[in-house]
Amino acid sequence: MNDPCNCLVEVSPDEVDAGAGVTLTVRVECPRQDGLRGASVSIRDRENAELARAALRKSGDGIYEANGIAVTAPCVVGEHVYRAVVVSADKGGAFQEQASTEVRLAVKPHATQLNVWDVPSATVAGELFKVTVGVRCSAGCDLSGQGLSVFDQEGSPVGRVKLGHEIWPGTEALHVAAVEARASLTAGSHRWEVRVADWVSELPHATGSFPMVVRVVSPPDCEVTIKAVDREKQTPIEGARVVMHPYRAVTDQNGIAKVKVTRGQYDILVSGSRYVPAGTTVEVTADMITTAELDADRPWESPDEVPE
Predict the structure, then answer these.
(1) Cβ–Cβ contacts within 10 Å for residue 221, how many?
(2) How many CA atoms lie within 13 A of 15 on its CB side?
(3) What are φ and ψ of residue 105, in 5° steps?
(4) Which residues of the chain have pLDDT under 70?
């Protein structure tokens, strides 16, 4: 009596996007002396329809293998059971089924990946502002026409837009859109969320979301003028960054930055390329002017180069 053959199948990846490609590796152990003549493996679905076939090649004593068998995952989310059937020719040349085993595929919806940028450092209560949202499908699907929404800290929708055909430069499938929303009426830091709902077009897609912090301030009632100058040369510094948390600005060609703020105490930090940052604290009760003198940042010197 001939010993039965044993068939093993490896699935890669073990969890796959709906409709994506899957690679199967089949290994058959056949202790029979006559081995497997003209053997091949047939991958079949639950209706016994053949999806792929590959020749089995002998790789050792009683060992046969078939690598890189490509099949396409179903478009329905869930676990699907296929069969790998080993067939070989008998002495009369007729093909006979020698072994079979189940092939289980775990199919998942496509993931929707989001990112948000251009969020203002501070937004006046009740005013409109815009952010830029990037959305990408894990399988690179065309997302044109899909809607995305912005939800405030209460979970209420405050902005919505449909994705267009615009793709972010240098990427293959990152759709971008500008979304307009209205800031909360309450000052403070609020946790908002940008969300794409799940949907099924040709293929199922899962819900995607991305958190963002919206800093809301009361309407400004004062203007602070900051002048950034080189301490040694007393020349204006263009492009210096000014931070009066949560307000930000950049100096113009005259080294001037104007920041509208509400009354209160602020730490001002001014920094520029090739300069040592300078900071000061001010109490803002009315429009005011202040000067920040920055020292040039000395180039780094190796200890071996420092004169004694």
Answers:
(1) 13
(2) 6
(3) -115, 125
(4) 1-3, 33-35, 90-95, 300-308
Strands 247-250 and 264-271: unpaired
Shared domain for 101 and 16, answered yes or no, is yes
Residue 244 falls within a domain, yes or no?
yes
- Evaluate whether residue 308 is within a structural domain: no
Tokens representing residue 167 in the block: 């793709």
Largest Cα separation within the chain, whole Å, is 102
Q: Are 43 and 7 in contact (CB under 8 A)?
A: no
8 A C-beta contact, residue 55 and residue 37: no
Which of 157, 182, 217 finishes a domain?
217
Euclidean distance between CA atoms 6 and 27, whole angstroms: 8
d(CA 60, CA 51): 27
> What is the residue type of 136?
R
pTM score, whole prediction: 0.69
Give pLDDT tens digits for 80-101.
999 999 988 766 666 678 889 9
